[in-house]
Request: fold
Amino acid sequence: MEPKQVLVVCSNPDGRDFNEPLNVKVKELFGDNPVYTFCDETINKFPSYPISDEKIYDFIWFAGCNILSHLFLDFDFTTTKIKNILKIGGKIFFTESKEYKIEYIKKEPNTLTVPISILLQHQSKFRQDDEYKLFESKLLAFVKENFIFSLKDDLFLYQCNKSGLKKYLQLKKNIYN
Reply:
């Protein structure tokens, strides 16, 4: 079995969010010897990185990206990037700190995954303008159209039900031909 390809956004191999012990259950999703690609908040900033859409990922992990509007400054570019690099059936998820999760979920967490609605709720504390409300509705529509939400063992996951499937199949075909 091929190792899982994991894109980690907003963290790096030494990052607090990536190395948080409560993310062990998350890392178990990736199986043995996953291949990580990191997009931290400085040098390799998502969605400009990864530069190429040639690599297809099994998972996109938003590790500590609690201000989503910063990631989606160019909404169409970011959503297209996600659709182009996430394989059909691939998953996206969001993790935050233990304190953050306790504040919003109101219980001691087993994992640090949070639903996207919690991230939007957090940001709406600081922004109530029409521009933010439009962003929020567009993001929720994008997620609803392209992902199926699942909750298993306190893991909030979004599984891609569409994506650049034709592109994915073409890349697989090119690899094996």
Residues 5-176 form one domain. The longest strand covers residues 86-95. The first helix runs from residue 16 to 19.
